Amino acid sequence: MPADEDLPETFRVTTDEQLRAVSNLTRHRIMGVLRFEPATITQIAARIGLAKGSSSYHVRLLERAGLVKVVRTRKVRGVTERYYAMAARSIELPDNGPGQPDLLMRHAVADLEASPADGERHVRMAHLRLTEEQFAELGERLHALADEYRELSDPALPDVSLAFALFRPALNPNDQTEGDAK
Hints:
Blueprint: E1 10-12, H1 16-23, H2 25-34, H3 41-48, H4 52-64, E2 68-76, E3 79-86, E4 90-92, H5 103-114, H6 132-152
Helix pairs in contact: 3-4
């Protein structure tokens, strides 16, 4: 496998084929398996509870879109076993159009809902009022914190997912702030 430092930092999704590939929850979970270490179709299928044929189909779509690649092969009883890995450290999706769902958050919610109910979770939503500067600073701090912990990640440890969204909600024209009330 190429050294981690040989991987491009970011893969930018730019084509419809790539967007379709990352839009699927099963393929999202396959990329999660490959995020830290290469795996074979059999290993991927076992990790996400999928049939080998289905796993192979989804990996081929990801490979065709350029999101994953074969990083190593070996012969096992006359069959060539392929090890797949991510093509970059992170994937950057295009901005959503107005009214379009956010793929990352949709996948994160699906993963959260599928996680063991008796497992430890830290889920919180906070409603804040921030200046533009505070908003920008909080966004930078959240990204830095995620990057810091990504550097500490060890493939031998269990998977952990972190999702955050910092955004200004759409204003409801019926809502008024105290200053607007008459």
